[in-house]
Amino acid sequence: MTHDFPPVEGGGSLILAWQIRNKRVLVVGGGEVAAGRILNVLNADAKVTVVSPREGLNPEVAYRIEQKQVDYHDRKFETADLDNVDMVLTAIDDPEASTRIWKLCKERKVAANIADVPPECDFYFGSVHRDGPLQIMVSTNGNGPKLASMVRKQIASGLPPNIGDAVKKVGALRKKLRKVAPEPEEGPKRMQWMSKVCEQWSLQELTDLSDKDMEILLGFYAPNEIPSSEVVRMQSRPDWAFDGSFGWSV
Ligand SMILES: C[C@@]1(CC(=O)O)C2=NC(=C\c3[nH]c(c(CCC(=O)O)c3CC(=O)O)Cc3[nH]c(c(CC(=O)O)c3CCC(=O)O)/C=C3\N/C(=C\2)[C@@H](CCC(=O)O)[C@]3(C)CC(=O)O)/[C@H]1CCC(=O)O
Ligand SMILES: NC(=O)c1ccc[n+]([C@@H]2O[C@H](COP(=O)([O-])OP(=O)(O)OC[C@H]3O[C@@H](n4cnc5c(N)ncnc54)[C@H](O)[C@@H]3O)[C@@H](O)[C@H]2O)c1
């Protein structure tokens, strides 16, 4: 039987957006690598505990402790540190301790990343570009971390400068749309209308959406129409200087 389903291409990672907000992450170690890990999980709103002797602390880690951005224990790792944690990240210069912590994590079924020991990682970090709600992660699956960083920079340099703001506005519009049309049976219409707005409006037009513009735009949801941004602005800002180029697109 012939078909054109995508072929399976094993050997990759499952790239997900882990919702670690308000969950507890244990970071063992306080060097440069730990500093990067800490920032990654703080950016995802996790609650972070750092365990590391004070004398080995990197200035950035010391700063986060001093600012109370993380909880801190001035000592080496102890088994009880694993109580009630959702994720463990180690970045220590002691391979034996690393492997011991990894084994304890596996006994307890806690997800862990052991820096420097890829086989002892439930997940790898990747090179991440961030612009507001937009995150782009590049992984080379352990082949070349430096290359991951270079690819990430190249991708970022080709992005429109306002893409993060456009994503933010679309997020706000989708939230309002769900209030206008909350019923589950509206799902297909809601999704189709939202997709068309994203396709037919430019990133700049999306970025420029005000709350009032969104209200007017949402008025076109019931009749299932996609007005041009000029039409919306004419209604929401009557004093707006119109350049004469408006039109309808449905
Ligand atoms: C992406 C990034 C994210 C982050 O760490 O946040 C990250 N490493 C970064 C940088 C980096 N790391 C290293 C160098 C030196 C140059 C080089 O080796 O290339 C540079 C370059 C630099 O510092 O610029 C050394 C290194 N890394 C690993 C080992 C162990 C090994 O390979 O055995 C060794 C020692 C090798 C040795 O001893 O020779 C292992 C891992 N590093 C990963 C992620 C995971 C795979 C990601 C992937 O394959 O895509 C994985 C498997 C596990 C993990 O760490 O989760 C971050 C870039 C952030 C950014 O700048 O955007
Ligand atoms: N992305 C990566 O995977 C990557 C990149 C570069 C380096 N590394 C490796 O990651 C590890 C950490 O790198 P670094 O530059 O941050 O090292 P570092 O030497 O600057 O820091 C190690 C830290 O671990 C602390 N520490 C040591 N034993 C401890 C224990 N038992 N409990 C708690 N804290 C302990 C030290 O006090 C220090 O703060 C090294 O093994 C390094 O080779 C990994």
Automatic annotation (TrEMBL):
Domain Siroheme biosynthesis protein Met8 C-terminal: 160-227
Keyword Oxidoreductase: yes
Keywords: NAD, Oxidoreductase, Porphyrin biosynthesis
Lineage: superkingdom: Eukaryota
Domain Siroheme synthase central intervals: 131-157
One annotated GO biological process: siroheme biosynthetic process
Pathway field: Porphyrin-containing compound metabolism; siroheme biosynthesis; sirohydrochlorin from precorrin-2: step 1/1
Catalyzed reactions: precorrin-2 + NAD(+) = sirohydrochlorin + NADH + 2 H(+)
InterPro entries xrefs: Met8-like, Met8_C, NAD(P)-bd_dom_sf, Sirohaem_synthase_central, Sirohaem_synthase_N
GO function terms (MF aspect): ferrochelatase activity; precorrin-2 dehydrogenase activity
The EC number(s) this enzyme carries: 1.3.1.76
Pfam families given in the database record: NAD_binding_7, Sirohm_synth_C, Sirohm_synth_M
Entry-linked PANTHER family: SIROHEME BIOSYNTHESIS PROTEIN MET8
Protein name: precorrin-2 dehydrogenase
